Amino acid sequence: MDQSFGFGSQVSMVAPFTCKLTDGKSKRLCALLGNVKLSLLYKASVHGYQASAFHQRCDRQGPTLLVAYNRTGYIFGGYTSVDYTQSGQYITDESTFLFSFQGKIPVCIKVNSGHYARVDDAGMPNFGQQLYFCYNNQPVVLNQRGNAFSVNTTTMYGNDTRLTECEVYKVKQMPQISARHKQWRNVLWTANRRAQLMGLIRNYKPLVTSVSRVRILMIGPVGAGKSSFFNSINSIFMGRITSKAMSGSAGTSLTTQFRTYPVKDGREGKPLPFVLCDTMGLEEQTGAGLDIEDISSILQGHVPDRYKFNPTSVFQPEEQKASRPASLKEKIHCVVYVIDATKISLMSDKLQEKIASVRRKVNSLGIAQIVLMTKVDEACPQVEENLQSLYLSSYIKSKVQEVSSRLGVPVSCVLPVKNYSQELELELNCDVLLLTALQQMLNFADDYLDDVCSMEDKPK
């Protein structure tokens, strides 16, 4: 039998050969893949560096994780969710990624959009016909020029091509956590679901051809997590934790400008079909935070990027550009109210009325609206321990219902999420929640654009 690592680092020492991968590093790799168990299939120093030995042990084993080690101590490799079968076919697999440990943290490099993940040939493993492990049946790694992965060989393996070991693990999805109660929303916490969501978002096209990217406006109290949501989405598509937008927990808004944040599909990728718009936080005091008239100007597309708000005056954008109406692509297509789950019951009447005023204005313009309920892990210890228990938590469900009641939105329009804040690496369950929320925002934006088209098509 093979040695196994389970999520939460269960280790079964029943193998005639042992894993070189440490318990700590196996935990971090499992966190990228979800609730999985790793079982060692192939170890080059034991079974040999020949392709025949690799395929004898690894073919038709489902998803696999390759982990390589070189003389200078780098630990790196790649994941594929598609079986090795020696079919000779080019494999499309959006969940494929390369990784390299930078200290304790595995930094991921996802396959670039539109490229094959690998060729399923009779040789040793390759990724994108670019990175070849145990090349030519030797303990070496070879990087050939290619565009499937944005590889920096200095960062990934220190340009040391000589391997001391190469292991391949079977990745087995474990049953989701058991529970007495059924999930009150169905979510698949898997790497394939994350890849599917990323694919849907990459390939999304707004219903109206004149709108190349939908504009999503984030509105909410100070410190609720508006800027953190952008940073989290940007992190997922960059494949690493980023902090482009200023975020924090100050008593007054850290965002003092109206900002429009496009998101790129990786460092060298093309812009994705949405823009996240960030504003000052809402504050309950009169004259503090974002003003309702400022919001009205933003919604109608009159406020430029980087406009700095002045709490003592209302925005006057060059007499609204001589009363010229903004084009549809300049307007806001979906409004997202960002609410801190730990502070819902503490929301003052003044702040609730301010949000209600915003909602009335948004309603009058027919713009789609949704609520993002953040910090669910801080609100519920059960969720903090395991994010997969989110939709099993009766407490979180009660908070969703409370938000729905206070803000006057349907329960189905309240989306609980956890933003990245203190983390140093991406985590699959968090990604799934965030991407699900973003996909729903795009759906709502399409509903608004569809309504606009229907109105324009009606006879005068």
UniProtKB/TrEMBL annotation:
GO terms for biological process: immune response. SMART domains: TLDc. PROSITE patterns: TLDC. Residues 15-172 form the TLDc domain. Pfam families: MMR_HSR1, TLD. It comes from the Eukaryota. GO terms for molecular function: GTP binding. PANTHER family: INTERFERON-INDUCED PROTEIN 44, INTERFERON-INDUCED PROTEIN 44-LIKE ISOFORM X1-RELATED. Belongs to the IFI44 family. This is TLDc domain-containing protein. It comes from Cyprinus carpio. The gene is LOC109053689.
